[in-house]
Amino acid sequence: MHTLDRYVIRQTSGSFLFGVFLFVAILSAGDLLFRLARMWLREGLPGGKVVAIFFLSLPQLLVYVLPMALLLGILLVVGRMAGDSEVVALRASGVSLFRFFLPFFLFSLWVCAGTIVLQEVALPLSALKLKEVWEEGMVSSWPVAERTFFRDASEEGVERLFYVREVDARNALLEGVVVQEYTGEKLRRIINAERARVSEGRWVFENGVYYEVNDKGEVERVVRFAREEAKTRETMEEILKTKKRPQEMSFSELRVYVEREKARGQDTKHLEILLWHKTAIPFAAPVFALIGVALGVTSPRSGKALGIGLSILVVFGYYVLFSIMSTLAEGGVLSPLWGTWVTNVIGALGGGMLLWKRNRI
Predict the structure, then answer these.
(1) Terminus-to-terminus CA distance in the chain, angstroms?
(2) What does the pLDDT read at residue 137?
(3) Distance between CA 36 and CA 2 in Å, rounded?
(4) What pTM value is reported for the model?
(5) Largest CB tally within 10 Å, which of 9, 80, 100, 128?
């Protein structure tokens, strides 16, 4: 490796770690740390469990933090090098800005690979460990979003897809429950209940209504109930310990899940967007590297405060555009693949053009 490359990577590593700590502190302070502090001070959760929950929640946060920290790290390093006339010296010795960008690009690929490992390995494992903490009955206000769904296929010939609005951990209750019940490949019943629980090998649904569906997919009968039961072989603990939200699944797990939903004729657009999110977010790192170098050489003598401000501005713009394009994809204007990747394409083109213009000066 060239001396320049080693120098740039060593400089970027320190600033990158600073960015990781900074963005983790900013993003966790607003919600996660507040909830953990409340559980510790008001509900008596042991300090060791608070620390465990914090670290088990980090992988989900780090998937988004790593590309952001990379952008900040590069802006700080390039801004400092430009301010100290190191970039001018490099260019005077015949080093183009594209050659200067190379070690940053290499570093961004490492960040990209690290984000993929976090997303595909650490995130699914940490999600299961978090559920184990919950299963121990030591947490009454679950720190992870509860709007989730899971499948119960324990009754022979019948499969139920659950959507749950909230989980009452202390009383082992599911609240705001919607269930699609399939026999074979055909939807036979939709249950909408205020609450559901598992008791003596049966699902018990309370205060709701169910819709019976015929072979043509039309609602044939509507029944209101105070209590409705259905067989199951699973316990509530087993269900909540092993089932994952789509956000907690690896790419391969989610792809299989999407295919199964498609086979049932379900609308999978939202799931497909989540699936392609898992490819677009890690590859934001090389895009941020290109933008970071281009902006860094454009604004020499920028201090740490300006670097932090610029990185927050770019990240904010990226995720606003990302959300808009994802919404267009959800509405059918763009395909899920294009809707999640177009922001990376626009960012790469913008950063590349800016760097090309600076290189010609």
Answers:
(1) 28
(2) 53
(3) 46
(4) 0.70
(5) 100
